[in-house]
Predict the 3D structure of the following.
Amino acid sequence: MMTEAEVRAALQAVHDPEIPVLSIVDLGVLEAIRISGEKVEVDLLPTFSGCPALGFMAEAVRSRVAALPGVGEVEVSFRLDPAWNTSRISERGKLALQSFGIAPPGEAPACPYCGSHATRMASPFGPTRCRSVYYCDTCRNPFEQMKAL
């Protein structure tokens, strides 16, 4: 019989399409797993309702879970309640963000490249709704910070 722990472990290999070093588990979008016989239901919390990556994530979850022994059916649902927020990002997720050049959410970000706190916001608008653009005055690299939502 399939266990929730086995499904959760399999979902560690499903990565956010926009931040490929970050699993959906560590991003905190995995809300619930329900198992009934050969059916597995997975609830995900989108980082925002209009996220263009939702279809990719759902298909990756279906594919990964369906490959597990004993799984006959996989259902993926997106829930808006509770709302996803950045406090759901795991410590491992925050380290993955830094390795990708994105400062985790919080006050006055340190540069993910050199660690300097001599940083300043260049724009509150980043490439996605949940990120801002910063500039490091020490190493002179631009970088993004995940907004605290």
